[in-house]
Every structure is written in C-alpha cells, then in structure tokens.
Amino acid sequence: xxxxxxxxPHTDAKKLYALMExxxxxxxxxxxxxxxxxxxxxxxxxAKKYALFENEPVHLYVCGGDGLLHETINGLxxxxxxxxxxxxxxxxxxxxxxxxxxxxxxxxxxxxxxxxPIAMDCDVMSVNGEYAINTVSFGFDVYVAQYANxxxxxxxxxGIIPYYTGMLQTxxxxxxQEYRMQIDDQRMPAAIYDFVVFCNGKYYGGGYQPCPDAMIxxxxxxxxxxxxxxxxxxxxxxxxxxKGEHISHTDRVTIKQAHIIHMDTNNETIYGNLDGEVxxxxxxxxxxxxxxxxxWLPNVGE
Length: 302
Ligand SMILES: Nc1ncnc2c1ncn2[C@@H]1O[C@H](COP(=O)(O)OP(=O)(O)OP(=O)(O)O)[C@@H](O)[C@H]1O
Description:
The chain is α+β, with helices and mostly antiparallel strands. The chain folds into two domains: 2-123 and 292-297, Rossmann fold (3-Layer(aba) Sandwich), CATH 3.40.50; 135-290, Sandwich (Tumour Suppressor Smad4), CATH 2.60.200.40. The protein is built from eight helices and 18 strands. The protein has helices at residues 13-26, 42-52, 66-74, 95-98, 105-109, 140-154, 161-170, 234-243, and strands spanning 2-7, 33-36, 58-64, 83-89, 118-127, 130-132, 135-139, 177-179, 181-183, 186-187, 191-193, 195-199, 221-226, 253-258, 260-263, 269-274, 277-282, 285-297. Helix 6 (140-154) crosses helix 7 (161-170). The radius of gyration is 19 Å and the shape is globular. 39% of the residues are buried. Adenosine-5'-triphosphate (ATP) binds next to helix 3. InterPro entries: ATP-NAD_kinase_N (IPR017438), Diacylglycerol/lipid_kinase (IPR005218), Diacylglycerol_kinase_cat_dom (IPR001206), Lipid_Phosphate_FormReg (IPR050187), NAD/diacylglycerol_kinase_sf (IPR016064), YegS/DAGK_C (IPR045540). Pfam families: DAGK_cat, YegS_C. This is YegS/Rv2252/BmrU family lipid kinase. Belongs to the diacylglycerol/lipid kinase family. Its cofactor is Mg(2+).
C-alpha cells in the first residue's frame, strides 16, 4: 500500500507543521510519499497518476481545502478500485467534511483514526465534463465567490473577509435571474430564482445548508431553489439558511431530488460555482455519477 500525502503548500504554515508532526508520529519507520502541488490544477494531474498508472493499492490523503479536494477528485474519476481517498481538512472553509458532523475537523486530521478506516463510496456530480464532490450552484453565491476569489488573488487577505466583502458587493446587483430547467423528466416553467443549488454534501459557502438532508452516497442530487427574496431580508434569511431552517418557507423555497438537470441558457454564458471554484458554462447539464470516489473516513469510534 502506498501512503500518499497530496499537499497544497500554500496552506497555513502552522497547520502544515502540525500535519508533518502527525505524519512523523503515526508513520514512524514507515515510508510515506509527499506530493506537493506546484500550481493550481496540479493536484488533478498527481491524482490521475495514482488513479490510473500505479499497480499497487494507494491511500491518498488530500491535505488542503475544498478547492484542492475538487481538483483531486477530477483526477480520480474511473480510478482503479484500490485507490482510496481521505480528506485532511487544512483549508479555510472545509465545507465538505462538515457533512459528517458531529465529527470535527480534528477527527479528520487525527491520523490514528485511519488505522481501520470506514469505507464509503461517494457520489459526484458532473457539469459539462467537470466533476464536483460537494455542491454546484448558480445565482447569488456565485457572485460572492467570484468577488472573494478575485480579492484573494490580488490582495494578501484570507479567511472570511473576502467573502463578506463579496457579499456586500453582490448586494449591489439585482437579486435573482431567470432560469429555464428540466429536472429529470419535469420541465419547469421559466422562473426567477435567487439561489439555485445542487447538493451532494450538506454544507457550502463556509457553513450554509441549502439541503440539510443531502447525503454524499444516497444516489441522488438534492436541489434547492429559492425565489422572492428581498435584499432587506438577506441577513434574516442567511441565519435560517445557515441552520437549514429556510426549507420551512415553502412559499419561497423548493426542495427536490433528481438524477439529471438540464439548464437552458439559450447558448448564453452562465457562471456556476463548483465546490467553491467559479466556472463559465453554456446550457449546463448536471448529472449524478454514483459511488465514483472511494473514501476512507476516520474511524472516530476507535
Ligand atoms: N502550489 C500551488 N500554488 C498556487 N495555488 C495552488 C497550489 N496548489 C493548489 N493551489 C490552489 O489553491 C486553491 C485553494 O486551496 P485549498 O482548497 O487547499 O484552500 P482553501 O481555499 O483555503 O480551502 P476552502 O475552499 O476549504 O476554503 C485551490 O483552488 C488550488 O487551485
């Protein structure tokens, strides 16, 4: 078994130091492979190498945030069945692992918890050829992510500040835009939505829960459509959205389950947020690929 640590070297230095100490403590005298990314998207290339071209089992620890995980899983689609992935959440938001609450980030970072890991095959969603493991969204939060990513790339700021700034900037735009969609075999009437979110995991955007009942291995995409929000309601709404309590507002919120969604943008470009990464699409199709990633989760009971 190859034990491979795939690391984003731009991770917070203290967190990286603690990870190295944890590796030394748990793998004393045993060989591990450290793979550090050299640039954005390098993780996908590294993952593909282990997914396809090795001939022994691999335990791949993804050491970074949701962005690194997103890139890694794109290299693991149709991987050999002996490639297992564990997530060591060292990013800022680490939304993917929040699905497993009450397990904590510390539970995921404790390497002793992987001696007898819990196996779980995880679904993913494809969007015109790119895969997302946690959420795919359109609308309000995409603009927030776009502003935040832009700010992070130009200024030495991290953490939540870029997201709050992005939210204030986004509130200067009109809320809502028109969508035409087919959800499985149901053609929806054209409608204006403020948020359109497709969930595999439960949390996104730093801790919001569009679909509190989503589960990463249930073979369906959970859909959350939100309409009719007023800007003055956003703060109140955000609190309910964080707790997943917005779903009781059935006049504004529609929750569904689906396997495939076609969005008709009339060949115009639309921006979508895949696990926190913003991408441009025309007429995107979001489709579930069941049990595509073989996870090894921490055995917290040990
Ligand atoms: N060597 C590298 N140099 C520059 N950028 C990198 C490198 N390796 C990875 N990246 C980029 O860093 C971005 C953010 O990394 P990561 O997901 O680890 O942390 P994060 O954004 O803080 O996490 P979260 O999304 O959970 O808040 C990724 O989108 C990835 O493309």
